[in-house]
Design brief:
ECF_trnsprt_substrate-spec; transmembrane transporter activity; about 0% strand; transmembrane helix
Amino acid sequence: MSNKKQKLTFVQGLKAQFSTKSLVLIPIAVGINLIGGTLASTLKLPLFLDMIGTILSAALAGPWVAALVGFLTNIFLALVSNPIYVPYSLVSIAAGLITGYMIKAGLFKKTWGVILTWLVVTFSSVVISSCITIFVFGGATGATGTSVLTAGLIAATKDIVKSVFASSMIENLADRAIAFAIAYVLLKRIPKRFLSQYAVDSADEDEDDD
């Protein structure tokens, strides 16, 4: 009975996340991601810039909506920019889920919580993306400027695994920091009356600082 209740609770929570307002939010969040992602890809920046909308949707609608936003972002980027974004959709899905559940736990109420969320998401992104880069693309994709850094590290260390993880760590730390900073500032400027209309309302601080 407890397992059945847990399943029902999960399904009910999932339905609550995908409300009409959340469905309207999804294309907007994906659009925000696409603008940043396309810009980064076109300019060959050592960044992705495709997660701001995912964080916003995680805060406003919940983890599974954020996961869907991340997945759709990668699919659209694959269509308009580079097919290599398809396998990396796993990174975006994981980032959306982790961000959403950590926000749901109230971690966005404090600055240290935002920093912790950033670090956890960064670590998961590094592990997943590095595995994809190594096992699917042989160590480099050429999609961002980080491929140059990776190639340089491989030439210097002769170690593909360490080189990919090191370059991925540098890239993701900077990229996720920018995304979380922008999203957090935007969330603090959204009126509470608007935030309360969504399933998740965990971005408001109970105290100014901790």
